[in-house]
Write a structure and sequence with these properties.
This protein is of the alpha+beta class and 348 residues long. 40% of the residues lie in helices and 15% in strands. The strands form 2 sheets. Strands 1-2-3-10-4-5-6 form a 7-stranded mixed beta sheet, sandwiched between helices. A 3-stranded antiparallel beta sheet has the order 8-7-9, with no helix packed on it.
């Protein structure tokens, strides 16, 4: 473990690559920190694995390097921004900071962002918000990618459309980040590249037959991923995917009804301050009682104990901060050409 890079070294490395590629300093720092946080939490498909594709987007003009979002609407508790294809992690951090500040006086605040670039791992944003005493909901969709079939269909309509949330308890916050599909596009691509299969029938062929082949998105015509719930209960994932599309693209006023612009995101951020509802003390009393009841529920055979959502990720984060970050083997080989091109030393 001694040869693992530290989180700080990885953040510096990523930030320098992004700065030399042309991102403004604050944007480079936000992107770097969110990508490293994702790896700390164990979301290895949505951490530094995205850095090489992001650098490619900067180089080809797909990601805007500087400036601010355009304000489409601004009310005390509701804002809409046009992200101008600026870096998604920077826009999302900025939206969360704005929503937290306004929630302290309004009780809640919602920010809808259209035309953002990709926002990486949703779970990576949540811990600081919950630790500051807020409840947070975060979701996104990519209106120009269609890899998930509606229940009963065999052509892609949605992206995996993740929904993430966090809230404080008397101990660690509860954190979850789930897709409305059985798996993600990124994991599907990784498994296909490694010559592996899905653990189950998570996808459909172009003709609608269930399959465990992750290469299905690369066929012509492509197959699709199944909504969460799979062949049995996929109507639930389908309904949730529709809700995410409404909260992201529809509220922001830009989505699948518009011409494609490339890899990007429609984003929905909502923050609540419990102090302006039933009070923070009462809120924590309820959340901690429920959390403790779950933790102390007798486990079923073969399970050591009940864990709360986010518990394993936070434990892994603490360990990796102390021992160094265990990067997926494919990450540094993908970044070495960029490091050489941009003149940035690889992290030791």
């Amino acid at each position: 473990m001694a040869d693992r890079p530290t989180a700080a070294a990885l953040s510096t490395f990523a930030r320098e690559l992004l700065q030399r590629a042309g991102l403004e300093d604050d944007k480079a720092a936000a992107v770097a920190d969110i990508l490293v946080e994702a790896d700390l939490l164990g979301h290895t498909t949505h951490g530094l694995a995205l850095l090489a594709p992001y650098l490619g987007e900067i180089e080809n003009g797909g990601m805007t390097k500087s400036g601010e979002p355009l304000v489409v609407a601004d009310f005390p508790a509701a804002l809409t921004w046009d992200g101008r294809r600026l870096p998604g992690p920077w826009l999302t951090v900025k939206a969360l900071e704005t929503a937290m500040a306004r929630a302290r006086t309004q009780g809640s605040c919602t920010v809808a962002i259209r035309r953002s670039h990709h926002i990486a791992c949703l779970a990576a944003y949540l811990r600081p918000v919950a630790e500051a005493g807020f409840c947070v909901l975060l979701s996104c969709s990519d209106p120009f990618v269609s890899s998930v079939a509606p229940f009963g269909g065999r052509r892609g309509v949605f992206t995996p459309n993740p929904l993430a949330a966090a809230w404080p308890t008397a101990g660690e916050p509860v954190i979850f980040d789930i897709s409305m599909s059985v798996t993600t596009n990124a994991l599907t691509k990784r498994l296909h590249g490694e010559g592996r299969r899905f653990p189950g029938t998570w996808a459909l062929t172009a003709s609608g037959e269930p399959t465990d082949d992750p290469g299905i998105l690369s066929t012509n015509p492509p197959g699709t991923l199944l909504p969460i719930g799979g062949l049995d209960h996929g109507h639930k994932g389908f309904a949730l995917a529709l809700m995410v599309e409404t909260l992201t693209g529809a509220l922001a006023g830009h989505g699948r009804a518009d011409p494609g612009e490339g890899w990007g995101a429609s984003v929905w951020v909502q923050v609540y301050d419990p102090a302006l509802f039933g009070g923070m003390e009462a809120f924590r009393r309820q959340t901690e009682q429920l959390a403790e009841t779950c933790r102390t529920t007798p486990p079923r055979p073969g399970v050591e104990r009940v864990r709360l959502p986010g518990e394993a990720g936070l434990q892994l984060r603490r360990r990796q901060l102390a021992e160094g970050v265990a990067l997926h083997p494919g990450i540094m080989p993908a970044l070495q050409p960029w490091a050489a091109k941009l003149g940035v030393a690889l992290p030791g």
